[in-house]
Amino acid sequence: MRKLIVNADDFGFNRQITDGIIQCHEHGCVTSTTLMANMPAAEYAAEQSKKFPKLSVGIHLAINTGRPVSIPKKIPALVNRDGTFKSSSEIVWLAKHLRLPADQVECEFTAQIEKLLSLGITPTHCDGHQNITVNPQPCIAMMRVVKKYSIKRLRTYRGLYRLDKMEGWKLNNVLKMLRINIVRGPKNIYYELLHRYWQLKGYQLPEKKYGFYKIVSSSPLEYNLAGWTVLLNSLPKGISELVVHPGLANNDPVDNADFAKKRVLEYELFSNPKTKELCGEFHIELVNYEAV
Q1: Phi, psi of 119 (to 5 degrees)
Q2: Any idea what DSSP says for residue 154?
Q3: Residue 41 belongs to domain spanning
Q4: Phi and psi of 239, rounded to 5°?
């Protein structure tokens, strides 16, 4: 049996994104979400989620957007003078060059989980905003806090680019896929090792992670039912996670303007009841993170 988790990131980012995610769960195919405890609509998101018991709610750990939950003086390496987190590009650069103190990252991650618990949400799973937790020091910090709070389910990052079955084995398509995987080779190896390491530590993970792009096709998928069909047709056996970022239109200055437009496209697709119906036609079971 093929099973699919459709996880919406950025729950609690603002009310428009939060409402979009809820509607995608209520009417469409979203089964799971991860909440940003440090963002303005965190309390609103927590209250809304309680109306939908089948929506599993995890923690979306963030040190690269918005304001920290912990006192800024405790995490000076992560924040600007005004108390906001440093830009995402700066945090990623620091992470890749091992200049993020793991103890400070752990302090903030702990504060975020504590806030979620105070809102009456016990996280079912954990992942990092913009994949920040795949970097060594944030990864160490994440492993410490999920162990402390007995969070057993993590996002995997493994997922080779491959051909959609519907495209056929045309030479041009095969060459595109080979080129993409060669370029991503070191990253793919790292993600595979990370997956196996987390499994050895006793954590439960989906077998594959997908985004709605060219990972299952030689060309980027369009946000419509035809693109959804391509994705469903290409899913392997076992439990896979599709990471999505739907949201209603908003002018939030913290959100990237181009990404905000993409959120609306995702909302229009993933709130469509037909997405759920097509899963049944392809014999794919929609599950939440508690199935992992």
Answers
A1: -90, 5
A2: B
A3: 2-291
A4: -100, 125
CATH code: domain of residue 100 = 3.20.20.370
Q: Which of 10, 35, 62 is nearest to 252 (CA)?
A: 10
Look at residues 29, 37, 59 and name the one whose alpha carbon lies nearest to residue 240: 29
Quick one: pLDDT at residue 83?
95
Q: Are 190 and 197 in contact (CB under 8 A)?
A: no
Domain count, the chain: 1
Only one residue has tokens 């995490």, namely 75
Structure tokens at 24: 């995608």
For residues 103 and 87, what is the distance between their CA atoms, to the nearest angstrom? 20
End-to-end CA distance of the chain: 14
Q: What is the mean pLDDT of residues 135-154?
A: 97
Instruction: Tell me the per-residue pLDDT of 199-233, one tens digit each, with 9 for 90 and over.
Output: 999 999 999 999 887 777 777 789 999 999 989 98
Above 70 in pLDDT, residue 168? no
55: buried, middle or exposed (CB in 10 Å: 19+, 13-18, 0-12)?
buried
DSSP 204: B
Closest CA to 221 of 269, 258, 184: 269
Please write the tens of the pLDDT for every residue from 62-72: 999 999 999 99
Burial label, 44 (beta-carbon count in 10 A; 0-12, 13-18, 19+): middle
Which among 13, 117, 53, 129 has a CA at the least distance from the CA of 290?
53
Q: Taking 80 as the threshold, does the pLDDT of residue 25 lie above it?
A: yes
Three-state DSSP at 258 gives helix
Give the 3-state secondary structure of residue 239: strand
DSSP E strand stretches across 177-270? 208-210, 238-244
The DSSP H or E segment spanning 93 is helix 88-96
* pLDDT of amino acid 182: 86
- Average pLDDT estimate for 74-95: 95
Mean pLDDT of 117-142: 97
User: Does the pLDDT at position 3 exceed 90?
Assistant: yes
